[in-house]
Structure formats: C-alpha cells, structure tokens
Design goal:
mainly beta
Length: about 170
C-alpha cells in the first residue's frame, strides 16, 4: 500500500488550462509514490514550527514550517508524506508574476548548508490532499519531508483553522 509521498514532477501552474481536462490537479499530475517508513532520519536537518491550515474538503490543506540545516552541505526537499493522515502531499511554490499569484509543484527545494528556509503562505508550502481520516483543528499530524539524499525529516504539525495567518499562532 502506498504511503502517499509524491516526489515532485514539475508541471507548471494550477491555473485553468486545457491540460487539466477538468480533473483535479492531483489526478492530472500523478507523481511516483514512495514509502517513507523505512527511510533513515536525516541528522542535522530539522523542521520546526510546523502547522497545517485545514480547509474544508475537497479543497487541499496547506502545510508550513521552517527547515533548518546545520550540516556543512546543502540539502534538498523533494517530497513529503503524512502516511497516517493524507494520501497525497506535494511540494508547491507560489510565484507572483505580472500581478498574479500562481501556484505550482516544484521538483526540489534547496536549503543551504548552515542555513534555513521557511515554507510559508505566499511562498513554498506543501499541499495535503486525499485525507485518510477526519482531520480536525487541534490535531497533530506527522509529516515526513523526503530529502534528495533518500533520508527524511520528521515534523510534528498542529492543525489550525482555515483563517490562521502567520504570526497569529499560539505556541
């Protein structure tokens, strides 16, 4: 059984285009599934302050966090999974072009050696689709971030209401 990791396959924008053929973007752009259960946990790389903005189904929810890389080499996030809670996660980026916001899946997101990268609204984020259970505000879900090295970073993410904005979270 698949754990619901989508390794990002670049596919452009999520705007209305003939290529979508009326399908949801998850179906129109299926990506290979990878099981994260047996991946080693990366040393020196952590994901902190993780939270998920829960949206009503069938809209996908979005996840945000800070990846900190204390190693001497850059690392790249190439996928994500929440095997117990969601069937499909994708790494996305919101780009602002000509006054328009466009969201699309990305192949990988680099985190510099000794640095960090924030996944936040209006930038990089993960999309969580195909819930496996009734996820509710206040729940904590485990998200596995898949690194290009074949290792994973495990994040504990608090589920927040749809209207939550950064800086307004309680810890």
């Amino acid at each position: 059984m698949s754990s619901g990791v989508a390794l990002a396959a670049h596919h452009g924008d999520h705007g209305q285009s003939p290529a979508h053929g009326g399908q949801s973007h998850a179906m129109a752009h299926a990506a290979p599934q990878v099981d994260t259960a047996n991946l080693a946990v990366a040393q020196g790389v952590v994901a902190e302050a993780c939270w998920v903005r829960l949206l009503p189904a069938p809209a996908p929810s979005a996840g945000y966090f800070v990846v900190k890389n204390s190693t001497g080499a850059p690392v790249s996030v190439v996928g994500a999974a929440a095997p117990k809670d969601y069937g499909l996660l994708m790494v996305h980026q919101t780009r602002h072009e000509n006054g328009m916001s466009r969201m699309g899946m990305v192949d990988e997101v680099a985190v510099p050696a000794g640095g960090q990268l924030e996944f936040k609204p209006g930038g990089y984020h993960i999309m969580l689709e195909q819930p496996r259970r009734d996820v509710a505000v206040g729940d904590t879900i485990q998200v596995d971030l898949v690194l290009k090295s074949g290792q994973k970073v495990v994040a504990s993410c608090e589920v927040k209401p749809a209207g939550t904005m950064p800086g307004k979270m309680s810890h």
